[in-house]
Amino acid sequence: FDYCEPQVIKVMPLSDGEFKRRADRARAARIHVEAMNSLMPADLKVVGPDVDSSRVRDYVQKALARAETLGAKVVVFGSGDSRRVPEGFSREHAWIQLQEFLHLLGDEITKNQYGMVIGIEALRHEESNIVNTSSEAYNLAVQTHHPKVHIIVDFFHLASEGEDPAILPLLKDQIVHLHFADASRGRMFPRMDSKQPLYAAFFSALREIGYEGRMSLEAYTNDFEVDAPA
Question: Which residues contact residue 1 at a Cβ distance below 8 angstroms, ignoring those fewer than 6 apart?
């Protein structure tokens, strides 16, 4: 493996002292942090009538500072519970709130000259009721129009939502990162014998666009010692 991609929400509860110890260990390791996901906790809403702007801003400042310390080059914004649109709430307003939140992230990165970008992640409808496809993530990034805000493509969500990998060339100017899992076996580590019909089309599209960035295995395994090398 080339790098690791831990969760932002896992490092945020650490005290400053404990975080420094963990960060020192991470920097000394052979495999370094180059991406992070799970940016926002479920109880810190960025959409809806109960957005606490001051609390969100404080969290974002600390979260991005810690991601920078760890060396993250891409911070993934999926966070389905945080961005879930409450029933009866205006989806148009929610879309604007997402843009405002993404601008907050981008501006914080620019202001502090951090070496990262944000990657909006489309999530299957079971995990979020807004931004469910890569094309929607792309539209959100384009409409947000911030140089530090782009998209990632997660193969599991793409396959779950029935999105055609042939769309990737249309999105290529915004793609900064990828997630991968075996969608045919319930989000497990991929294997050579996986029966996933979209694999070939997905990798063909990546070759077509000349993608040379990172791809994280965001997947489960029941036997890491066997599945990881395979």
Answer: 31, 228
User: What is the tens place of the pLDDT at every residue in 4-49?
Assistant: 999 999 999 999 999 999 999 999 999 999 999 999 999 999 999 9
pLDDT (tens digit per residue) in 49-103: 999 999 999 999 999 999 999 999 999 999 999 999 999 999 999 999 999 999 9
Reported as type and span, the H/E element at residue 4 is: strand 3-4
Residues 103 and 56: their CA atoms lie apart, in Å, by 13
CA dihedral 176, 6, 84, 91 (to 10 degrees): -20
What are the φ and ψ backbone dihedral angles of 79, each rounded to 5 degrees? 50, 60
From 96, 15, 105, select the one nearest 59 (Cα to Cα): 105
Residue 136 tokens read as: 């929607």
Q: Which one-letter amino acid corresponds to residue 42?
A: A
- The Cα–Cα gap between 97 and 159 comes to 27
CA distances from 194 to 124, 138, 140, 189 (A): 21, 29, 32, 9
155 sits in the region (left: phi over 0; alpha: psi -120 to 50; else beta) called alpha
Token readout for 116 is 């990262």
Cβ 47 vs Cβ 97: under 8 Å: yes
